[in-house]
Structures are given as structure tokens and as C-alpha cells.
Amino acid sequence: MEIDAAGLVLGASTGIGLAAASGFRVFLPPFLLSLWFRLGLMDLNLEGSDFEPLTSDMALIVMGSASLIEILAYKVPFLDNALDTVATPLAGLAGASVVAVTLQGSDPVFQWAFAIIAGGGTSIGIQTATVTGRGFLSAVSLGAANPVFSMVEDIMSLFLILIALLAPFLALIGILIASGVLLSRKIRQLKVEKEPNH
Predict the structure, then answer these.
(1) Closest by alpha carbon to 12, among 90, 99, 78?
(2) Distances (CA, A) of 98 to 33, 73, 93, 154, 171
(3) Nearest 10 degrees: Cα torsion 99, 105, 109, 114
(4) Predicted pLDDT of residue 190
(5) What is the DSSP string of 101-120?
(6) How many Å is the maximal CA-CA distance in the chain?
């Protein structure tokens, strides 16, 4: 079933919000998206598509278990740093996947191009920032602050997921604003670095 222009914008907004959440927690966004489908709260039909297994009992059990393990494992100092090496590529995969799901019914070329570039790019960008922050905290606090940092990540991921599912346009606007702020800071930083020392 093809989706109209309004559904396309709605799906893209939802997907980008979930992709951003995947940058904080890899398994939680697809798990809650799957649960959303099972509860009949997602106005999208996956029947007969490659994503139909997402709504199965097995998918819910596996992703729910993986979400719980991920959340608990990130509370262990230095184990969390090691997990980041695996979580970074997985975040890109999760980000692209959730966007592709929410764009089901659109042109396949657009669906996957947007999913990989926007979805994967968003989640990897956020994941990279969290890796940097966790690495800094590990160095200055010897890991003592890492569990607190992890809890903040949990909250941010859950918040973005709920906003993406309940108010997707707000999620998109928030992500665009945050991206603009981060980009402007990076540009200012590069300008300062290029200025000659007196």
C-alpha cells in the first residue's frame, strides 16, 4: 500500500525521531516501535512486507530482552566504553532500519536512500557524541560518573521515542534545531582554530 505526501512527511518525522533515539540506545527504539505496531497504534500496514516479522512475538521477546541487557550493561563502568565499539555501527543500522520501517509504502529508492543517509547518519552522529562524552567522563572520574551518564542516555532515548511516536513533527523540529546549534558551534570552533596566533 502506497502512502500519500502527508503520510510520507509523518513517516519521515517519526523515523528520524526514532533514529535519534537509536543514537542513545540501539535496541529500545525498534522494540517500542514493534510494541506500538502490536498495540495497533501505528497507522501503517506491514502485512506482506519485509518488515512484517517486526510485529511477531519472537521479535518483541528478542528486542525487549536485548533492550534490558543493553540498559543494564551500560551501567558498568569501562564495560560501557567497550560496548561503544559495537554499539556505534549497530546504531547506524538501527537508525536506518527504523526509518525504513516508518517509510514502508513509499518509493523503495527514496525509502532506503533516506533511511541510510538521514536515519543512519542521525543515529551515528548522536552515538559518536555520546562515545566522546563517556570517554571524557571515564578519564576525569575514573568511571564513577559513567552510570549517571548512562541513565541520562536512557531518559533521552525514551523521551525521543515517545515524542517521535506521539508528536513526530515536534521530534523533527527539535532535531533540526539541535543539529543547527551543534553545526554552528563546530563552525565557530573551526574559525577560531584557523585564526593566526598573535
Answers:
(1) 99
(2) 8, 23, 9, 18, 14
(3) -20
(4) 72
(5) HHTTTS-HHHHHHHIIIIII
(6) 66
Q: Are 172 and 16 in contact (CB under 8 A)?
A: yes
Cα–Cα distance for residue pair 72/89, rounded to 1 Å:
20
Please write the tens of the pLDDT for every residue from 27-81.
999 999 999 988 888 877 788 788 889 889 999 999 999 999 999 999 999 899 9
Q: What secondary structure does DSSP assign to 6-67, as a single string?
A: HHHHHHHHHHHHHHHHHTT-SSHHHHHHHHHHHTT-S----TTSTTGGGGSHHHHHHHHHHH
pLDDT tens-digit readout, 107-163: 999 999 999 999 999 999 999 999 999 999 999 999 899 999 999 999 999 999 999
Asked if 23 and 95 touch (Cβ cutoff 8 Å), the reply is yes
- Report how far apart, in Å, the C-alpha atoms of 1 and of each of 44, 49, 69, 195 are: 9, 10, 36, 55
pTM as predicted:
0.84
Element (H, E) at 179: helix 168-194
The three grid cell numbers given for residue 114, joined into one nine-digit string? 533516506
Please give the radius of gyration of the chain, using alpha carbons only, rounded to the nearest integer: 18
Mean pLDDT, all residues of the chain: 88
**Torsion angle defined by CA atoms of residues 55, 157, 98 and 48, in that order, rounded to the nearest 10 degrees:** 10
Angle at 126 between CA 92 and CA 133, to 5 degrees: 125
